[in-house]
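Regression test case RT-17, inverse folding.

Input:
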């Protein structure tokens, strides 16, 4: 059995309970094969030069964790810059928020090159390498240029926008060509696959070989949808534990006369949080019977505070929340509780179970795991209703949710009204179908299907080793 090597921007000790579903799922396989997990340590170091930080390794059971610090300049250009101020907004269709700063690309490429150079000596001949997410798109190209011949798969956790939006990226040819250094590219949804294929065929001149296979730059690539799931069993276990049960009971007691609605997100502009507050305001305006009853709890964890677009979002949201409570609140009822904090993972199932309506309404999302966590947390005998944006990857799978357009305040308010008043039998039927799908397509199913596809993929002829092209503007330092 081949050893698995996982590469991601951040890594987690898979033995620690706080690591979460993805880390646990990857950790399972890593532990079985005695694997290696490589990535950034999370440390911004003053002791190394850009592109030249030291490798550190430590054991976590049978898994080797190999990490590299980042110099401050690299952190600013690779992580905050190109990854989070260019790729994140563009891939979430927000060209208006992209900060196309030339120096960011230099740092992005420098860090990917450094990672490739540090990782290469750790690799064994029959390793299977699985690279994760937008921070590391050019990693395989850099590895190949150093002579790496192992199979390499890539999974993108965020959406792929339509070709014309991708083409707005100044270095799109360079970036997209780098995908051909992989053997398999996994995306979250069929919509993402369609966009990716159309870009490669129309903009990069790739040949469509059918069956998800594309040929270009003397290489063959397979692309497919592998929608990520949650660790259902682990989440159910959490839901039965005392902290989740107490959280649910305390909320139900406090809000005995109310109907709770819940939103849990990272505070990110892709999550459609202000739009959700506006739709809730519209609900109170249009359906006044919900006043003194419907209460929205919104827990938005701090995220990327040092990127400008996030500071603006926070201010906008605080204004909206203050206004709704000021305009509609009463001595014995506040319509909205906004909490700008991360809540302990152990409490999340209890929060979800107490909520009659789960509001998952991103403007664009690769998948959105909160939608699946909400489904799994419900009491099947008296389940709540999931209101889900049609623009979340999860909407392709969770068709029994109430699907909404988060840009349309009026129809979203109507959907919330429907959710609040949905008869028990319909709630049960919808929930049963959502639960079956979420169970069958859990995180272990996702990991197995991706790795089977990667292992089954006919490897590219090693003599056609991919050579990365320099980005426009010449070789970065
Ligand atoms: P994210 O955008 O981070 O991930 P998402 O899928 O929404 O996220 O998952 C977030 C996780 O963090 C969930 O497990 C949720 O419970 C937890 N969480 C969020 N806010 C929290 C809070 N305030 N307190 C406590 N816990 C909180 C990216 C992509 C997604 C994709 C995932 C996985 O953007 O589209 O689903 O990767 O591929």
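Golden output:
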């Amino acid at each position: 059995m081949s050893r698995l090597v996982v590469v991601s921007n951040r890594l987690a000790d898979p033995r620690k309970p706080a690591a979460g579903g993805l880390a646990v799922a990857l950790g399972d396989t890593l532990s079985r094969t005695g694997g290696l997990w490589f990535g950034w340590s999370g440390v911004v170091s003053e002791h190394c030069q850009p592109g030249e930080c030291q490798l550190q390794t430590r054991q976590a059971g049978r898994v080797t964790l190999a990490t590299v610090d980042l110099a401050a300049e690299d952190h600013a250009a690779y992580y905050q810059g190109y990854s989070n101020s260019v790729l994140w907004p563009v891939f979430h269709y927000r060209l208006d928020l992209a900060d196309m700063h030339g120096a960011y690309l230099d740092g992005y490429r420098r860090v990917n090159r450094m990672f490739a150079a540090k990782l290469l000596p750790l690799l064994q001949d029959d390793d299977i390498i699985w690279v994760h997410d937008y921070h590391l798109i050019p990693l395989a190209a850099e590895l190949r240029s150093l002579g790496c011949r192992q199979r390499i798969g890539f999974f993108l956790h965020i959406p792929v926008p339509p070709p014309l939006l991708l083409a707005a990226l100044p270095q799109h040819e360079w970036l997209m060509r780098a995908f051909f250094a992989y053997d398999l590219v996994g995306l979250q949804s069929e919509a993402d696959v369609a966009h990716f294929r159309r870009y490669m065929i129309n903009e990069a001149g790739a040949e469509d070989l059918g069956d998800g296979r594309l040929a270009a730059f003397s290489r063959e690539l397979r692309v497919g949808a592998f929608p990520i799931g949650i660790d259902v069993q682990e989440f159910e276990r959490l839901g039965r534990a005392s902290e989740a049960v107490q959280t649910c009971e305390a909320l139900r007691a406090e809000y005995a006369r109310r109907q709770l609605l819940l939103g849990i997100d990272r505070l990110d502009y892709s999550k459609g949080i202000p739009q959700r507050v506006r739709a809730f305001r519209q609900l109170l305006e249009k359906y006044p019977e919900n006043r003194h009853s419907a209460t929205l709890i919104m827990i938005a964890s701090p995220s990327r505070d040092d990127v400008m677009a996030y500071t603006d979002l926070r201010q906008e949201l605080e204004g909206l929340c203050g206004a709704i409570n000021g305009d509609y609140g009463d001595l014995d009822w506040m319509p909205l509780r906004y909490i700008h904090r991360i809540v302990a993972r152990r409490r999340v199932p209890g929060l979800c179970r107490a909520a009659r309506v789960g509001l998952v309404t991103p403007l664009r999302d690769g998948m959105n795991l909160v939608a699946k966590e909400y489904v799994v947390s419900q009491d099947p005998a008296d389940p709540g209703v999931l209101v889900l944006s049609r623009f979340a990857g999860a909407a392709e799978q969770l068709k029994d949710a109430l699907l909404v357009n988060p840009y349309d305040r009026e129809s979203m308010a109507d959907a919330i009204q429907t959710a609040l008043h949905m008869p028990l039998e319909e709630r049960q039927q919808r929930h049963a179908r959502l639960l079956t799908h979420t169970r069958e397509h859990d995180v272990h199913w996702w990991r197995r299907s991706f790795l089977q596809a990667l292992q089954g993929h006919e490897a590219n002829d090693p003599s056609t080793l991919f050579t990365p092209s320099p980005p426009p503007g010449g070789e970065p330092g």
